[in-house]
Design brief:
With 494 residues, the protein is mostly helical. Helix content is 67%, strand content 0%. The protein has a single domain (30-477), classed as Up-down Bundle (Amino acid/polyamine transporter I), CATH 1.20.1740.
Amino acid sequence: MAVPTRTGPSASRRATAFRMRSTEASIDTIAGPGGALTRSLGRTDLIAMGVGTIIGAGIFVTTGVAAATKAGPAIVLSFVLAGAICVLVALCYSELASMTPVSGSAYTYTYSTMGEAPAFLVGWNLLLEYAVAAAAVAIGWSGLFGAALKSLFGVELPKAISAGPSDGGVINLPAVLIVGVIVAVLVLEVKIAAAVVKTLVALTIAVLILVIVLGAPHLHAGNWAPFMPFGVHGIAAGAALAFFAYLGFDVVATSAEETRNPRRDMPWGIIGSVIIATVLYVAVSAVLTGVSKYTTLNNAAPVATALAAIGAGWIGKVILVASVIALTKGLLMVFYGQTRLVFAMARDGLIPKALCRTSSRGVPMRLSVVLGVIIAVVAGLTPIDTVAELVNIGALFAFVTVCLGVMILRRTDPGRPRPFRTPLMPVVPLLAIAGCIWLATTFEPLTWLRFVIWSAAGAVLYLTYGRKHSVVAARESTGAGASDTVAEPAGGVA
């Protein structure tokens, strides 16, 4: 049969919209000169990065607030539920990550299983998720840093330089400065960033263990009654809120291209970080609701409030410092994940390819600086109030897509070598999808409307820019094979 010729650019673009890229071709995208990242991460680095992102300052705040407003003492079950669903999703992630050790996580996997247009929408929603999370964390860091200065040294920052215009200030300078520090760390070398994260993770876990040890002897069963004041729906609502934190294992997945032995270590990093973080969340929430009535925890410092009730008020200063540390590493990892996602999309031509140029150290320095400027402006001038649900719905969308992709690839390419295989197929991905959908039903209608609007904007961007500049489309129009390397190098040394 003769190969049909292209009759016009629009026909080719329509054909490319749902064209899938093989995993070999995904791996081949790193072969272009200057387009590859440096492989320097090991198993411990990956676990630390995942735990460092999941265990942020939210564990010192979200656990108490979610108990008071969402689930009551059953917040323990909320974290068990969120952790269980995330473990199921992580098993699916692990199979695809071990097969495709390339930056981009869910975006890259969707490209290989569902096609270019769905992959772009997944990446587009993850991009919003990372950007909003980074700005929110930077603003939160500024608030906690100011509180720590006042508590420890009696120094209070002027409102003009500690709040944005809408909050009565001029600029949130601490938020801008911490973004600058994060960018500086990331443009040095990923190994340095991983070392910083491991140190900060160790400090955070030490503080959490201290909280558990101090609170455990003072547990009172009466504080756990009623155990489910908000019913089963409250447990699900608490779990949905917790997903704001579980973005962490997607950060691990997107670091595959910088892992020395991704086929062996990616599953350990993804699954291990989810399990460790879930255990810590469950333990801390059990202590909080056990030493203090859940109705008293709806404040900005629930851990300090609970421990003050048992005579450990001094812990408040420790918690403030630990929260600043936790937010610092959380911001570092969220920013890292965002740069690697955008790097992958730029290298594929779906957004401007100039963003994927790497420096002599093998890091996307130009991209890091550009994103840093954008996030610094947003964090310095804009108030961000309720963002958790908007971030979570993007994560759930990506999780569902990855789980579907595992099942699709098992049918379309069952003989492909899989260094890690998701067990109990298709039960695990189906349960993960069902769990994600269940949690998504707890979101407000306005959250769904924002999700639809953002996705529609992404579809327009893909149709007007992405499909015209797609590397896969350009390669196929010149007759290159599916597993060939990218015809046009993905960038040079910046």
